[in-house]
Amino acid sequence: MSTLDDLKQSVIDGNANQAKTLVQQAMTESLPPEQILNTGLISAMAEVGRLFECGEYYVPEMLVSARAMKMGLELLRPSLAAANVQAIGKVVVGTVQGDLHDIGKNLVAIMLEGAGFSVIDLGVDVPPQKFVQAVKEHQPQLVGFSALLTTTMGKMKDNIQALQEAGLRDQVKVMIGGAPVTEKFATDIGADMFARDASAAATRAKAAIAQ
Ligand code: B1M
Q: Disulfide-capable partner of 201 in 17, 57, 76, 195 (CB 3.0 to 4.6 Å)?
């Protein structure tokens, strides 16, 4: 097994310390940062997503793998920036106003990062105007809203309205998700796509920018 095979396996297993050690080892072996990212980290998260979709992994396993991936990525990030590796696209994400749940949103952000996107995470309790400001400033291809409460999911519609009023709606695709959110709700409020989970979010985001 090569260092990158071992790295991939350590992320799938959720072994964060080993992932860090192996990223370091791969850099010491002078492997290109892009190869470490794609072959070691991104392919691991793709496999984690597959295991989740076929019911072999549940949220806890996915979180542990996500943490391992994130720790490896943190170590690699400076080399990636130095090597000027291009992200495949830009996404702004946040949990809507009034909602403090961020575990799912963080997982979505990591899976998007794992899929090769540059992610601007606005955090939790994000008011519509902050999303508008971030879309103006960063010009992402995609903006993602997360909501976990039935009382806050209506804010997603307000966010879309705010983007419309700012004249930005045509420039950005809107993805929504969170436990109470459905495909029908997404259609009803005029979002472009719904993702059931973090793995679907990454797959849908990639498909959306390929259109
Ligand atoms: Co809260 N909470 N909570 N909570 N909490 C729920 C959501 C609830 C269902 C629990 C219950 O009553 N059974 C309930 C909501 C009821 C409803 O509205 N229908 C609830 C409530 C009522 C509340 C409070 C109001 C409680 C109170 O204070 N009385 C309060 C609200 C605070 C606020 O937000 N203003 C509250 C507070 C909290 C904590 C702070 C204690 C904590 C959050 C900690 C944190 O996030 N940092 C918390 C937690 C942990 C939960 C539960 C137990 C777990 C949520 C979670 O992290 N799930 C939750 C019960 C449950 O869901 N079983 C509950 C794991 C996570 C990986 O899944 O977030 O669904 P999830 O994300 C998934 C998908 O939904 C999707 O991908 C993710 C990964 O696969 N996804 C997206 C999410 N965002 C996406 C965005 C996308 C695409 C996909 O595109 C952009």
A: 195
Mutate to test the pocket of ligand 1, among 96, 125, 148 (most ligand atoms within 8 A of CB): 148
Same domain? For 129 and 194 the reply is: yes
Write the pLDDT tens digit of every residue in 103-120.
Answer: 899 989 988 988 889 999
- Contact partners, residue 111, CB within 8 Å, separation at least 6: 45, 49, 66, 198, 199, 201, 202
Distance 146 CA to ligand 1 centre (A): 10
pLDDT in tens, 131-190: 999 999 999 999 999 999 999 999 999 999 999 999 999 999 999 999 999 999 999 999
Angle between helices 3-12 and 16-28 (to 10 degrees): 160
- Residue whose CA is closest, atom 38 of ligand 1? 101
Q: Is 77 left (phi over 0), alpha (psi -120 to 50) or beta?
A: alpha
Q: Does ligand 1 have an atom closer than 6 angstroms to the CB of 101?
A: yes
Are residues 26 and 124 located together in one domain of the fold? no
- Domain extent at residue 186: 89-210
Of 54, 82, 110, the last residue of a domain is 82
Decide: 92 in ligand 1 pocket, CB within 6 A: no
